[in-house]
Amino acid sequence: FLQFQLTVNITACSLACVGAAVLTESPLNAIQMLWVNLIMDSFASLALATEDPNNALLNRKPYPRDQAVLSQTMVRNMCLHSGWQLVVLTALIFGIGDVCTGHGDQCTGTVYINNYGSLRSGRPAAYDFNGVPGLCPPVYNANDSSTFNSAGAPLRSADFCSEAHGGGAEKTQHYTMVFNVFVLMQLFNEINSRKIHNELNVLEGVLKNSYFIVIVIGTLIVQIALIEIPGVNTAFGCTSLTQDQWVASLLLGASVIPLNVLFHLVPVSMFPSGGGGSRVGEGEGEKAA
User: Among the four residues 57, 191, 197, 288, which has the most C-beta atoms within 10 Å?
Assistant: First the structure.
């Protein structure tokens, strides 16, 4: 559970920071983050904490009191999985989405930047159109006479790009896919998090835990409802996706399971342990004192 929760935190916080620094807003809105938090805390704790003990667990020796809470294996899994998720989500945010005039998901005018996927960008219009030379007037600067007229009024209003080109606040399939892939990656990584001792088969014994199966399937059904049911998707800042987009989202989400096998090839010695525990020799010093 701790491995799963920290992986979600690393990815979500990184996305929020990158969004604030580059796009001036987070790709995931507040209510979407609340749904992610519900998956991460309540549902995951029930799913991962209800595993029945097996013989390997009962035969394992107790951990010493100076053992770190996070093992090197857990740190490796957290770093590699969050890294992969950030690569995929960054590619989705910046690598797809056409820069064009129009509203909603369709380009109705000139396409200035044709990215992969034939989707209209859901990024803030100011970010997109600032990247096209000459398309937007420069941002007002009191020391630059090219940014204001003879009367001293700025050539560009605060919402110029939004007014002129449809805005970035509209609900688009582009940002809906970002949210969907993010949630599905966490959902499939929940399966990986069942095993934290370098086991390759993360599906071993999964059918014996009915709570886990019900929670995972139930979360997936709710996620589909959040995106596809009119009114509900509006509240979550989403719009309906096509069949192809759902297939792509599921494939990207499920990619964390086969990659988990490849991540096991990375030596754990490359990663530190963490989360408490005394340093080597500290316990002996206490005893001597």
Answer: 191
